[in-house]
Design goal:
By secondary structure, the protein is mainly alpha-helical. It has one domain. It has 7 helices and 4 strands. It has a two-stranded antiparallel ribbon. A hairpin with a 2-residue loop joins strand 3 and strand 4. Helix 3 crosses helix 6, helix 3 packs parallel to helix 7 and helix 4 runs antiparallel to helix 5. The longest helix has about 50 residues. It is globular.
Length: about 280
């Protein structure tokens, strides 16, 4: 195992550890910070193995500006996420915290890798033919599935953003998820057209779905080990929600929006590996 392989496995381990961290520090921001660190390291390590260092920069160069532009556009006009504001403290540029588009880059890389595994497997080379235009929208939907898990909590319990016309999923409107899908699709399509060919990976090809399950894990651990009380509620724009319902819904939604793509990608990798191994 090379140093790069060790780095990739280490980054994946950090993400999974962050998913389990609420067991030790319930209610702390540490698991989220640790998870983001793991995702950043995974992008750098796994992306470098797959596309080279310039390829990693290319992916981030596709994701960050597109995410920032659409976030700023939506804050100004309501398209494509709907009318919303970021309410947390700290620096904002055109209403967008500079750290927010990083999430699209690092989570987006895992979503992209999962979609690529499902559509074309772990074979090397550039996307060609229909796959060049199929992988990007599939990856965009996988990414939006991640948002369906985190956004209701962020918009209610944590108060990190708010919507002008709250609705849909605990106050998060349909337009928000469509905005994530559009943003992801544009960024991924650019990379599909401009990015370098993928290299063949060894054992690390199984890690994107494992990392995706690790990203989903905090919602499960929090719901199981530190559920909100039956009377805990939060009110947003005149609407009251039980915190326990928000927590439970995150687990339910994530089973399908994150669990299914991850398990499909893992099954595709393992099935193709079995086929390639002579009996």
């Amino acid at each position: 195992m090379t140093r790069r392989d060790v780095a990739v496995w280490g980054a994946a381990a950090i993400v999974v550890a962050a998913g389990l961290a609420p067991l030790l520090v319930p209610g702390s921001a540490l698991p989220m910070m640790l998870g983001m660190l793991g995702l950043i390291l995974f992008l750098l390590a796994h992306g470098s193995l797959t596309y080279g260092r310039l390829g990693v920069l290319g992916f981030f160069a596709c994701a960050y500006p597109v995410a920032f532009a659409f976030e700023a556009l939506s804050i100004a006009t309501g398209f494509p996420f709907g009318s919303f504001t970021h309410d947390g403290p700290g620096l904002q540029i055109l209403g967008v915290p500079p750290t927010v588009p990083i999430v699209y880059g690092v989570a987006g890389y895992v979503a992209w890798s999962i979609a690529r595994l499902v559509i074309v497997g772990d074979r090397p080379g550039s996307l060609t033919g229909p796959a060049r235009f199929v992988v990007p929208p599939v990856a965009a939907l996988v990414l939006a599935g991640y948002d369906a898990v985190i956004d209701p909590t962020g918009a209610t319990v944590e108060g990190r953003w708010s919507f002008g016309d709250p609705g849909g999923l605990f106050g998060v409107p349909l337009t928000n998820f469509l905005g994530w899908a559009v943003t992801g699709w544009v960024a991924f399509q650019l990379f599909a057209l401009l990015g370098p060919p993928a290299r063949r990976l060894g054992s690390t090809s199984v890690l994107p779905p494992v990392v995706w399950l690790g990203v989903y894990l905090p919602a499960v651990v929090t719901f199981v080990t530190a559920p909100a009380g039956p009377a805990d509620a939060v009110t947003v724009a005149g609407r009251s929600f039980l915190v326990s319902d928000i927590q439970e819904t995150a687990v339910i939604v994530g089973m399908f929006s994150m669990g299914i793509p991850a398990l499909m990608a893992l099954a595709c990798v393992l099935a193709r590996r079995d086929v390639a191994t002579p009996s």
